Amino acid sequence: MEREIEVKLLDINVEEFEDKIKKIGGKFVKEENQTNITINSTAHKIYKKKGYLRIRISESSDGEKKYFTFKENVSDFKARDNIEHTTEITSVDDLINILKCLGYDIYHTGYKNRKKYSYKKFVIDIDTWDKETYPKPYVEIEAPSMEDIYHLVDKLEIPRDHVSTMSIDELRKSLKK
C-alpha cells in the first residue's frame, strides 16, 4: 500500500519542461513502455469517487513487471490523493479470466511511454499515450504534499490553469465532449 499525491500538467511543451527539470537538478531515472488496462463492471460498478482497478505491464531496461492495482481515491481537491493497493502478478490472462468470472466486463487498454525523473522529494513522469487513449503528452508530478507540488509548479513558472487532478479515464472522457 502506497500513498500518492499528484497532479498532471496539461497542454504544456513537454520538451521545454524536461529542459527546465534538468536545469534545476532533476535526474533521469528510466524510460519504460507500459500497457495499462483499466477494469470496471456494469454489475459491480466502481465509481470515480472510490477509485479504479488497473493492470499494468511495464517494460524497461529492468525487464518486464506486471501489477494489479486498486487505486483508492482519497481526494481530488487541488491534487489527486490516492492510496495504491498493488500486488505483482505473473499472468495477466489468468487474472482477466478471474475478473470476468466475477462480472468485471468493462476493459480499456492503453499504451504509453513514460520518462521518469527524480528531483529532491519529487517523482516526475512525462507520459505519452497512444493517440486513441489520449493524444497529447503531459507531465505528472508526485510529492509528499500538495504544498510541495504547487511550490515546484510555481518555481517552474507553470501557469496554474495547466494543473489538473483528472485521471486518465476522466481525460479521455473530456475529449469526447
Automatic annotation (TrEMBL):
CDD domains: CYTH-like_AC_IV-like. This is Putative adenylyl cyclase CyaB. InterPro entries: Adenylyl_cyclase_CyaB, CYTH-like_dom_sf, CYTH_domain. Pfam families: CYTH. Residues 2-174 form the CYTH domain. Signal peptide: none annotated. It comes from Peptoniphilus harei ACS-146-V-Sch2b.
